Predict the structure.
Amino acid sequence: MKGFWRDTVEFFPILMSGVALTIVVTIGSLLLSTVLGLVWAMMRVSGIRALSMLSASLINVIRGIPIIVLLFYLYFVMPDLGVTLSALQAAILGLGIAYSAYQAENFRAGIEAIDKGQIEAAQSIGMGWWLTMRRVVLPQAVRIVLPPYGNVMIMMLKDSSQASTITVAELALQGKLIASSTFKNTSVFTLVALMYLTMSIPLILLVRHFEKRAGKR
């Protein structure tokens, strides 16, 4: 135990630099996946067949490609096509695109859960489709999708470790580098696991809070 605490004091500052990058990747990809997911969802429920089919096809394609393959494609293949991304940019873009498919399904489910009578009432008083969505549907849908949205945040935080495969020096890669140079695998990866858990617990509690609030309605 003394050895573990000694290793913690030694390795903690290095791992914290990885934590900072983990947070950047998580927040960046979360914002991107939210925007893209909302776009895909709005296309799905637009009532325009071409847009709905295009959105469904995009979602199926994205869900069918492993995240690590998407990251490799963005980082290693795109330069061959004339588009060069930094490892951090590729990580945020790859995770954002990958999770946009799951976000889209969450948003679509939330939108479709709204009573159609409210939509008809809004349209009967002259509201167009977009105004109805913005003022009537989306404010209520947000409350419905908060619990699954929180779960996506937790999954994205953990999957940010896949950015290490394209040399983003986030927490997982920093831990691997330290372990390979010191051979203190037990101490290093125990500390890495505890740091991921520390970041996840607030999100887990937040999701539980949202679920309780949703259950009272």
